[in-house]
Design a protein that fits this description.
Elements: H1 14-26, H2 48-58, E1 63-67, E2 72-75, H3 77-83, H4 87-90, H5 102-116, E3 124-129, E4 137-146, E5 152-161, H6 163-185, E6 191-194, E7 199-202, H7 204-210, H8 214-217, H9 222-226, H10 232-243, E8 248-256, E9 262-269, E10 271-273, E11 279-282
């Protein structure tokens, strides 16, 4: 059988959230601050406090709630698992006491202050550093918690583990650096241009053959400034085709080097693409 979609059943917890907000404004400063029973016993078999607590604790996403002073009031099991921070270490603690990375502290503080005052963006991204020597963080997207009078008394929201993304990004950066070194040191001439035909790559071998350094040619138009007159039309067509994703396996090009020297090359033209697959140049 083929899976054709997903279906799910939800529970309306609007009243629970409202109850949570009321108790948050009156309850203790640390630990889970949940709703009271008032008027919910007929709707939910367990108390509102127990029901909401069970939802939050069993959630598969990290969950964070803070009060108006930025002290942690809720930190579920998934948050503990991903971050390494236990409830004992987190609850009642200000997120600015070693939890938000130093480089984000001022920005997060400013945004939270505005959000809690009701004047800024209602959604604030809050990065929490994972415990331990290995770098990693959870980014929580917090939204306001309001009491019955509409007063903002805290923030809460789910988080996403950024550790794997950061590791993947670092791996991609390493690959990119390896490719740059490969291009720079390759024992074959390599030239690259952007979508307008301006040079953005000129490797060491081409520096050696042409007499022009990479610094001298970067940003200049390849065809207009360096291709010999008899080759200009053909090279322009090849670059234009590659920009349209029609790559050329082999073509001849003559470059004008320093001191009247000419450099005759047999090259291929390959489209260069960005992360979204769009052609941004030719190499």
């Amino acid at each position: 059988e083929n899976v054709t979609g997903i279906v799910g059943i939800g529970n309306d917890i609007s009243d629970l959230r409202q109850e949570l907000s009321q108790e948050l404004s009156e309850g203790p400063a640390s630990g889970f601050i949940g709703p009271t029973m008032s008027g919910t016993a007929d709707t939910f078999p367990l108390s509102a406090r127990q029901t909401l607590a069970s939802y939050v604790e069993a959630a598969e996403m990290p969950f964070l709630a803070i009060d108006g002073s930025s002290r942690v009031t809720e930190w579920n099991a998934r948050s503990v698992e991903v971050s390494g921070w236990t409830n004992k270490a987190i609850l009642g603690r200000s997120i600015f006491q070693g939890l938000v990375p130093p480089e984000f502290k001022q920005d997060v503080s400013d945004k939270l202050s505005w959000a809690l005052s009701g004047q800024g963006d209602a959604k604030v991204d809050v990065p929490i550093a994972c415990k331990g020597e290995e770098s990693g963080e959870i980014v929580f997207k917090l939204t306001p918690i309001m009491d019955r009078m509409g007063t903002i008394i805290g923030m809460s929201g789910v988080g996403w583990d950024q550790t794997a993304l950061r590791e993947a990004t670092m791996q991609q950066e390493c690959i990119a650096e390896d490719l740059e070194r490969l291009i720079a040191t390759a024992n074959a001439p390599i030239v690259g241009v952007d979508a307008d035909g301006n040079i953005n790559e000129w490797n060491g071998k081409l520096e050696e053959m042409s007499g022009y350094s990479k610094r001298e040619v970067m940003g200049r138009h390849l065809v207009d400034d360096f291709v010999s007159r008899e080759c200009k039309e053909e090279v322009s067509l090849v670059i234009g085709r590659a920009i349209q994703s029609l790559e050329t396996g082999s073509f001849d090009i003559t470059l004008c080097g320093t001191f009247g020297r000419t450099v005759r090359l047999n090259m291929n033209a390959t489209s260069r693409r960005d992360a979204d697959g769009y052609v941004i140049g030719v190499i």
